[in-house]
Amino acid sequence: MKLSRLSLQENRTFFSSLGYELPHFNDQAMIQATKAHPTWIHFGAGNLFRAFLAPLSQQLLDEGSCDTGILVAVGFDASLLDTVYRPFDNLTVTATLCADGEIRKKVVSSIADSFCMVNSPEEWQALLDIFSNPSLQMASLTITEKAYNYLSGSGTVLPNILQDMEAGPAGAVSYLGRITALCHQRFTTCGAPLALVSMDNCSHNGSRLEAAITAIAQGWQERGLCSAGFVDWISDRRNITFPWTMIDKITPRPSEAVSRMLMQDGLAGMELHVTRHGSYAAAFVNTEEAQYLVIEDAFPNGRPPLERAGVIFTTRETVDKVETMKVCTCLNPLHTSLAILGCLLGFTFINEEMKDEDLRRLAERIGYSEGLPVVVDPGVISPHAFLDEVITKRLPNPFLQDAPQRIASDSSQKIPVRFGNTIKKYAAHPALDVRDLKGISFVLAAWCRYLMALDDSGNTFTPSDDPMLSELMPLLAHVKLGQACDVHKTLQPILSNASIMGSDLYELGLAPLVEDWFSHLIAGPGAVRETLHRLAENA
User: Fold this and answer.
1) Residues pairing with 241 in the sheet
2) pLDDT digits (tens, 9 = 90+) for 348-379
């Protein structure tokens, strides 16, 4: 049986008998209401959206808290919509993989419609119409951390953004350019307020989105390509806001085991697909049970009552504390550490790494010993309890099976946030010594070792996608395992680069420790394990 709105309506008993949680609202009425007065659109149709945000919308619909669903748009890859959205009437199955082995299956039908922002004039017009509707309250985004970059490392405007600035609203093609064009459409039609809500895992995500959108708008204004007053309008917080958020829910690539389980249930079309950009997608998503979403309550046109679905609305200051707690201390640094070491040591799943005593001790050291001393308790979530859940339940979850290779992608963009803030706080604290960051400095050295594209046995591997690989890997091309090299000369361009490390590590006094670790890590095959074990024994 193929998953569709009709099959769901006609076979509710069948789905229920197999343990699927089903929606309780009238989906046709929801689709009509959403088309007439849309309230929430999301950019980025990946697994996190379908595993977390779409179910939040469904919960509000089930409870009768709202009558509209959620719309979704993608910026560059319509193949995702063509393979796992539209053939299934925009329905999806979520499989929640609990640490105790329970698998909770849910059919999510809150996605009213899906759109591709490029190569489809009709769908682009539909998006323009949505942004022209005063009822729209919220446009959220999960477009990956690197998508917010509009400047190069040297401070010049990136070529694709510059092209959008020169093309104007009608010719923009990048994600950021097209979203800015949609805001311009809103300005020139209804002029109603709107919240643009980044939900990507990056520090001060709302401000990063604001900076990019504003820069593009200013580029148009300077060239006379947008309506007069647009920049002033988009800069006025009575019109457009950019709330900060913290989102947390581990959602790995679709599992082949879950695919087999769903097909054994009788659902057709649950195979895995590889998109044109190399990511994995399916008509289902698998995810962990834990989830957190904290949002700055700054919505000038109202918002869906998501607090009824467990979302925490608070001040920007509190969001900042929660985000810093999670991204800089209690989860993301541990994830990145395990990803880098997992690639070097030949692991394929994070949960398997947590069975390794040396790696588990590394995660505990970075979280408890090095991170918690500089965490500010946000008040709405306990840092220690959050970290306990990460260490004892989330990362070791044997059913989640997240890959270190997936998490290692874009590490150059993650390191300055996930480690840089803690390093700077240690350096600025009168009672703390940056040289006590043995675990973090070890991971930074291991990442430099990772850039050699040799595992701990000396075998070559392909590093995960990262926008700076082409610039960084040549810096280590001359380094050979078991052969002496000038470590300082080799690493100085990396460790002194604040855009990579968050600061100049030589100025803060941590670079010598990283260089020392690196000299041990390149001593020969097996040196990564040997050095890691020595660190673990001295924890």
Assistant:
1) 195
2) 999 999 999 999 999 999 999 999 999 999 99
Q: What CA–CA distance (Å, rounded) separates 439 from 364? A: 9
Distance of CA 25 to the CA centre of its chain: 30
The full length of the chain comes to: 539
DSSP structural state of residue 295: E
Model's pTM, two decimal places?
A: 0.86
Give tens-digit pLDDT for 266-310.
999 999 998 777 778 999 999 999 999 999 999 999 999 999 999
Sign of CA dihedral 52, 32, 131, 87: positive
Phi (first) and psi of residue 523, to 5 degrees:
-65, -20
Q: Which residues pair with 280 in a beta bridge?
A: 274
Provide the sign of the torsion angle of the four alpha carbons 328, 332, 336, 342, taken in this order. positive
H-assigned helices in 365-497: 383-389, 404-407, 411-418, 420-428, 438-450, 469-472, 487-495
Q: Where are the beta strands (DSSP E) in 179-327?
A: 194-198, 240-241, 245-248, 273-274, 280-281, 284-287, 292-296, 312-314
Max CA separation in the chain (angstroms): 70
Angle between helices 487-495 and 438-450 (to 10 degrees): 100
> How many Å apart are CA 452 and CA 458, to the nearest integer?
10
Q: Are 338 and 359 in contact (CB under 8 A)?
A: yes
Residue corresponding to tokens 């809500």? 197
What's the one-letter identity of residue 433?
D
- Spatial strand order in the sheet of 284-287: 20-21, 103-108, 92-97, 284-287
Cβ partners under 8 Å of residue 53, min gap 6: 42, 70, 140, 142, 199
| Token digits of residue 12 | 């509710």
The enclosing H or E element of 70 equals: strand 70-74
pLDDT value at 539 more than 70: no
Strands (E) located in 75-128: 92-97, 103-108, 111-116
